[in-house]
Amino acid sequence: MISVDPASATPPYEQIRTQVLALVEKGKLAPGDRLPTVRRLAQDLGLAANTVARAYRELEAAGVVATRGRAGTFVAGEGVERAAREAAVTYVERVRALGLSEAESLSLVSRLLRAT
To answer: 30 and 64: one domain?
Structure first.
């Protein structure tokens, strides 16, 4: 989805930054979507990792993405909470249909969160 034109007068980090921003604005990257790692994107584009890191830092400073340590870089936004809430509602409906108690379903979620 992201490409860099080496012949462009626009620096590569800026090309990356503007393309990611455009993908977010068009809805092609939604809140919660994970971006490629700095190293992976740099390798794919044939760039230095510092170039991609600069683009990600600028996107983070603008509030477009959020870095969660080793978990990676994700598209930020209030949509993340909404998506999580929708997933929780779906989960609650499913465990109720299966006949699980609140304690059983919470225990299951806790175990899965610790395991990943």
So the answer is: yes
